[in-house]
Amino acid sequence: MDLLLRIRTSISQRLTPPRIFILSFALLILAGAILLWLPLAAVGGRLSFVDALFSSASAVCVTGLAVIDIGKDLSFAGQLVTLVLFQIGGLGIITFSVVLFGLMGRGVSFKGREIVQSTFLHTPQRDFIVIVKGVLRLTFISEAVGTILLFVRFVQDFPPATAFYNALYHAVSAFNNCGYSLFSDNLMAYRGDWIVNLTVMGLIVLGGIGFIVQQEVIARFRGLQKRLSLHTKIVLLTTGVLILAGAALFYLFEADHILKGVSGPTQFLDSLFQSITPRTAGFNTVDIGQLTNPTVLVTIILMFIGASPGSTGGGIKTTSFALLLLMIWNRMKGRSHVNVFNRRVPREIIGRTIAIIFASGFSVVLITSVLLLFGGGGTVPPEQSRHFFVEYLFETVSAFGTVGLSMGITPKLNDIQKLAIVLMMFAGRVGPLALAFSWYAVGKKEIKYAEESVMVG
Fold first, then answer.
1. Nearest partner of 45 among 1, 75, 69, judged by Cα
2. Which one-letter DSSP state was computed for residue 315?
3. pTM across the whole model
4. Residue ranges of the domains in the chain?
5. Handedness of CA 176, 182, 187, 188 (dihedral sign)
6. What does the DSSP assignment read for 179-196?
7. How far apart are the first and last CA of the chain?
8. How confident is the model over 66-92, as pLDDT tens digits?
9. In angstroms, rounded to a whole number, what is the distance separating the alpha carbons of residues 86 and 194?
């Protein structure tokens, strides 16, 4: 008994909240891979385990990159597995566990509280159970409304049962910023459709701004909250600027190319949609492989920035991007602190922001290097294989930002490259910094050494 108690105590001490959070995603990916590997999950023979693992990781990490055709290669059972995976992956398995325990009348552990607090809230709150229930309520209401709107359009092309299933699948995928589609051409067949475009874009934005932002905006609108928090102000302003700037640049760079010859309303929808979807959604209404080089660069930047904290999306997050710009601006004005909206951002937050951005950049460089190293392009003359660099970089940033957009090379990746992208998707979902910190031992005291200056810049 003493031995069992010591083992349980040792495991409990090692399972810190960050490790539990990361382990929950890893186990969910493994479980999903096993289910997708079963013969009943595929059409015309079972998937290879690597493809099943890739598809599961892409769903759980709400990425949307696909090495198979979801609508054709997976059976109805396999498609339902992916639907459940990106629904749970978008909100986090710990969130569902907390709500389940609450409904059963059971208490929530301190570690569970800490995980949920850090996932959805910028400031700890006592009534976080109510907030988590509100998260689920907002999620299901948004997905239900999206399903109804998409059903109204899809029922014109499919039988009612098929139309409802397609609407539900795409609504859940859009809100969770996954990008998995049952259509082989994604949403290109609905390129100029106002209902499909506006519904999907609305769901993407709602899922990507973060749940605490949704709740604050609703509370402010209902008069239950006097002012928006600094976090919400930064998220809303940055999100709006990125959407408008991205749409304007897309139109500017593609007006004489992919937008040439289409109507004005379709050009507007294309520009707006392809500005919103790189922010971790992954749906596309145009052929990404046909975009001009400047547009590809803008898309990579948008994918790297990603969604907002406490949301279903990935990337370095809008707040990190905004704080980096604010830090540079305040430094240029000779200020030692970062000030915004008559508030001062703590130095600890600024330091964490810089660490996140550089850790993310290093991860992208590392995985891109692995893709290039094992891409098999060494036997091809450089001038003929130069395109691999852009395609692999695009694929890696898409995986990191849990976006799902691709220039068409995902199904062509070999097993080693697929596993590298799986690791990138996982790191992008849980955070590269959190993944690195989870390996360190707990409770070690930090040694403070004497300071000495170093020249920089």
1. 75
2. S
3. 0.86
4. 15-436
5. positive
6. ---SSTTTTGGGTT-HHH
7. 60
8. 899 998 999 999 999 999 999 888 776
9. 25
